[in-house]
Amino acid sequence: MNAAMNWREWQFWRRTMFRKLLFVMLFLCALVLVLFIPTGVNIARNSLAKFDHKTPVKVGFGLRANQEFPFYPAAAIMYRRRTPRLQSERAYRKWLEENPAKAEMVRQYQSFLNDNNVGEIIPMRELLQGCADNPLKPELAFDVPPKALWPNIVPTLKWFDANARPIIGKVRLYHGYRNPDANKA
Prior knowledge:
By secondary structure, the protein is mostly helical. The chain has two domains: 7-79, no CATH class; 83-184, no CATH class. The protein is built from seven helices and two strands, in the order H-E-E-H-H-H-H-H-H. The protein has a two-stranded antiparallel sheet with strand order 1-2. Strand 1 and strand 2 (63-66) form a beta hairpin. The protein is elongated. It starts with 6 loop residues before the first helix and ends with a helix.
């Protein structure tokens, strides 16, 4: 700083230097993100260790996942996404009220699952969630699989309850059946 610099010049110089320093810091942060995140830095554990793709990784809010892909920040918040309106609890109750035949099939499906001691593992609304990506056909948001496929879910739910739930904890599951009409839509 020059001894002949007045107060106004000093303030201008100070603000300019602060802006330059801030720009350099932001540039360095962006550079670190560009260099390290795509290569699989384990941000979830706040370390710069590479993934070995086998170790369970704690991903925010206590969710544990055995990651098969490099960690990206977007993956940490994917499960925080809200349930689509077409698959909300309110939409599920409305779907049951508007479709008495489907409501009867849901009762039969629930009794089948209860008879096989897997009825309380996953809420029925989550088991029936189907195609929510088509807002033009809200009736496809929930669907009961055909009776011929019902026995297939029993060992899956038993395995999930015995093996996956103790590790993962509370999660939202979706059934694997997809209505053929949803594929046409």
